[in-house]
Amino acid sequence: MVNDQAKSAGPVTQEHPYPPTMAPYPQGFGATYPGYPIYFAQPPDASHGDGSNGTTPAPPFMIPIAAAPGMLYPYPPPPGQPYPQFQQPAPAAATSGARPKRKQVKMACTNCATACKRCDEIRPCGRCMKYGIQDSCVDGVRKERQKGIKRGPYKRKNKAATAETPFGGFPAAGGGDSEWQANGASSSNAPSSAAPAPVHTVSPYPPEAFYHCFLPPGFAPPGHEGGPAPDGTSNGTSQPSAMVPYFPFPPPGYFPFPPGVYPSPPNGTQVPTMDPADASRNASQLAESECRMEATGKKRSKGGKNGESKSKRAKAAPPGNNSETSTSGGTVGGSDQASEPGTNGPVEGDDA
DNA sequence: CTTATCGGACCCTCAAACAT
DNA sequence: TGTTTGAGGGTCCGATAAGT
Ligand SMILES: [Zn+2]
Ligand SMILES: [Zn+2]
């Protein structure tokens, strides 16, 4: 119902500096998700025209111009090549306080999953790269849903009611929640019946998960929604995602990634990595940060099996009145040891 | 002030239930 | 057989505790 991040635009400063350490970027610029860096939403020379009023102009790579959340350009496109443009979605969402749905990655890496932090589709994920633990950045094993569970009779909803989107926005853009979805690839059986839902040619927003934008030569951008297969293959189409502007080379003068944070190329080409000392240190830090299963044994299971489903709770319970502490209930669910390599858990940090 | 922890809201997928 | 429902299994936001 309501959004979880809308409830507080708190000054969260962590986890966002994926483009690791550049100059600090102003937060909340035009992004639905405050704090997400925006790079080159538009040509730097276009209109910001700042720096003339005494203050030093912002570095070209962090110009605070409103952009779609997650849209980032480490550097401008090659000369003569226009910036990919995105259609501004219905302002209703922005102004009414309703934000577009949060997009999740299909599978977070084990490190991010245990830390409950945002991951991305790329496999040494941004967070792991940040901590220098690319080695342990692997997908967990998704538990298979058990079959044969009986369900009660359904309450049929009025179909007419579904015709209009909750917040009246995104007309025919793919039905309510499609604004984040790339090419409808996300849902094999999405409620396609709701609307014609033409496939976006260019999604208004890129998935927020995209942090890596500049890809070293030879590093083809991964498919998005289908998600890059674990082996690195894209989701069928070998063409770059329409949502991710892809400029194989940084223009002179731009260096989006500090040393050591390039995504590793697919063919095993060696890439400069973080200083070993830092890496190990970070690794240990990260390891300690694991907060699920291993350390506390909490969370992972929702314990929904006992009639009370967590979804019910989530949707029904108005914020502020959770007299629920459902988690404790979930804890019992000993059935899912998650997919965690477990043992490695927090200790795996081999903190040198 | 920064970073780690973790409760719980939100999201996605997909099988059961239901309609045709 | 196709569509809808709704729960399982998951991600990750954001408040807060702990550390520097
Ligand atoms: Zn990750
Ligand atoms: Zn990772």
TrEMBL record:
Ranges of biased composition (kind: Low complexity): 185-198
Q: Where is the composition biased (Pro residues)?
A: 247-266
The entry's keywords: DNA-binding, Metal-binding, Nucleus, Transcription, Transcription regulation, Zinc
Q: Which residues form the signal peptide?
A: none
- Residues spanning the membrane: none
Q: Show the SUPFAM superfamilies listed in the entry.
A: Zn2/Cys6 DNA-binding domain
The source organism is Pisolithus tinctorius Marx 270
Domain Zn(2)-C6 fungal-type, by residue range, is 108-139
Q: Read off the PROSITE patterns from this record.
A: ZN2_CY6_FUNGAL_2
Annotated Basic residues bias: 148-159
SMART domains in the record: GAL4
Question: Polar residues composition bias: which ranges?
Answer: 232-241
Q: Which InterPro entries match?
A: ERT1_acuK_gluconeogen_tf, Zn2-C6_fun-type_DNA-bd_sf, Zn2Cys6_DnaBD
- The name of this protein is Transcription activator of gluconeogenesis ERT1
Chain segments carrying region Disordered:
1-23, 147-199, 222-352
